[in-house]
Amino acid sequence: MKQFIEIAIVAALSLLPYNQAYSQPKTTRNTSAESQLIDGVAALNRGSIREASEIFRKLSEADPRNDAAHYYLGLSSLYLRDVKTAQSALKQAAKLDPGNYWYKDRLAMAYTLGEEDDLTIATYEEILKDFPKKNEIYFNLVNLYLKGGQFEKALAAMDQIETVFGKTEAVTTTKYDILLRQNKPEEALKALESFNEEYSSPRVLTQLGDHAMAEARDSAALSFYQEALGLQSDYAPAILGLSEVYRIRRDYPSFFHILRGFVSNNEIIPEIKAQYLSRLFSMAFRQPDPRFLQNFRPQLDSIVDQAVGLHPADSSMLTTAGLYYSSSDRLEKATDLFKRNMDAHPESVSAAATYLQMLSYRKDWEKLLAECDLAFTRFPGETVFLEMKNIAYYNTEDYAGIIDNCQRVIDLSPGDTARTIPAMAMMGDMYYEMGAKKETFKLYKKVLKLDPDYVPVLNNYAYYLSLEGKQLKKAYAMSKKTIDKEPDNPTYLDTIGWILYRQGKLQEAKTYFKHAMLYGGKESATCLSHYATVLEALGETDLAKVYRSQAEARKSEGME
Asked: Which residue, 336, 404, 413, 461, is most buried by CB atoms nearer than 10 A?
C-alpha cells in the first residue's frame, strides 16, 4: 500500500501546473529570490531533483518567510523519499500561508507517506474547514477513518458528502458496507432502500438482492436481480446473483440457461467469468447439493469447454478449467490445459509453476525433471524451479542430484538466508540418506550457527542423534525448542517422545505420543510404531498391539 501511495504522489506532482502550485507570499520577494525560485522549478520539471532540492533549501534558509521555497523544498523531498524533510518544509509553507490548499494537501500526503495517520486526518479535517466542497478529501478521510476503525466518523463524512453533493451510488454502497462492518444489517438495508426509492441503479439493486439472499429471501432477491438486469442486461453481478437463486432453488434448467448466457457474453471480461466458475465449483462441494458437480458433469463440462473456446489464451480461464478437470480426476485434460496456459504465457512464472505442480501431482518424475530444466532456462533467477526439481530427484532417489541442485540455489542466492538455509538443511538431509552422517551434522551445525531456531534442522538433528543413542541431552534440548515453537506438530512430538524413550523416561514419552495421536500422528507409520514400542515398555501390551497393527497398515499404504 505504501508503494502505491508513493507512486500516486509522484504522478500527482508531475501533473501539477506551476501557476496552480505557486502562491505569492504576503511579503514582497526580491528579483534574485524570484529568479532562483524559477530556476529551481525548472530543475524540478526536467527531473534534476537533487539540484532543485539544493536550490530550494538554500533559498528557504536565506529567506525563511518564503513560503513557496518551503513548499517546493517539500515537493522535491517527496520525490527523493525524504519524508521528514518534506513534512517539515510543507508544514512551514502551510504555516506561512494557511489558506493555500495545495500546501496543506501535500503536507497531508507527506504525513501519509510517513504512516502518520492521525496527523494526516487532522490536516485533511483542517482543509475541509476552508474547502468544504473538495469531495476527494472526504473520501481520503473515509479511508483513513475505516483504517483506524472509526466507523462513526466515516459515516459522518459520508453523510456530509451527501449533504454537499447529493446522494450517489458510490456513497450509498460505501455506507452500506460500513454499516455491515458495524453489524447493523437493518440500517445498512435502509441505506440501500432509501437510495432505491429515488434512483435506479443496477449496482444498488444487485446489493439489495445479495442482502435478501443472505437473509434467505430468495423471492425478493430474484425480483431485485431481474429489475437490475432490466436496467442493464449485461450487468455481471446481477446475472450471477440470479443464477445463484436458481441454483439454490435447484431450478437447474434456468440455472444453466443463465450460466451459458453469462459465459457466452462477450461484454463480460474473462477474468470475471473465471472467478465465478471457480467460486461455483468451490461452493458446489458444500450446500445445497454436494453432488452437484457429479450429477451435472456433462453440462458443466460443456460450459467450461465453451468458456475456454471463447477465451483460448486467457490465463485465468485456462487455470480455472485446469483446476476443474483436476478436481474431477481427469488429469490428462487438466495437464493439457495447464500446459496450454504456460505456452500461451511464456513470460509467466506462475503459469509454468502450475504446470509443473500438475506433473508432480501425477508423479511424472521424468517429465517434471525435463520441464524444470526448461523453466529454469527461461527464468534463471527463479530458484523455485530448482526446488521443484528436487521433488522429482527425491522420488527417483537421486539424492546426489538434490545436493547438486541445492548447491546451485546457494550459489545463486548469496546472502539470501531465506533460500540458502533451507538449501543447506536439505543437503544435510540428503547426505544422511546417503550414509554420510559426518557431512550431515557438519551442515546442520552450519545452519544452526546462522539461525539457532531453525526448526526443521533442530528436529532432524535431534532425531538422528536419538536413533544413534548419542548426545541425548543435546538432542532433547534441540527437540524441546521445536515443541515450544510448534506444540501440535506430530513429527516434532514423535521426535521428543522417542528421545525420552531412549532416555528411559517412559511416562513422559507416552504423554507426548498421546498428544501426537490427536494431531495427525496416526497418519505416520513411524510415529505409530514408536508409540507401540513405548507402550510395550510400559507393559500396556494390548494397547501396544492396536498401535502396532495400525503402524503396519500405514506402512503398507506407503505412509512412513
From this structure: 461
Residue 457 domain flag: yes
Q: Which helix (H) or strand (E) holds 291?
A: none
Among 19-28, 122-131, 159-168, 474-483, the range of highest mean pLDDT:
474-483
Contacts of 18 (CB under 8 A, 6+ apart): 41, 45
Task: Identify which of 473, 481, 476 has the alpha carbon closest to the alpha carbon of residue 451.
Answer: 481
Amino acid letter at 390? N
Do the Cβ atoms of 431 and 439 come closer than 8 Å?
Answer: yes
What domain count does the chain have?
1
pLDDT in tens, 58-113: 999 999 999 999 999 999 999 899 999 999 999 999 999 998 999 998 999 999 88
pLDDT at 221 over 90: yes
Name the residue range of residue 526's domain: 453-560
How does the average pLDDT of the chain come out, rounded? 89
Give dist(CA 106, CA 83) in Å, integer. Answer: 11
Q: Does any domain span residue 301? A: no
Q: Are 147 and 112 in contact (CB under 8 A)?
A: no
CA 201 to chain centre: 32
Whether residue 311 is contained in a domain is answered as no
Record the pTM.
Answer: 0.68
d(CA 329, CA 323): 10
Residue 29 to residue 47: CA distance in whole angstroms: 26
In a domain, 519, yes or no: yes
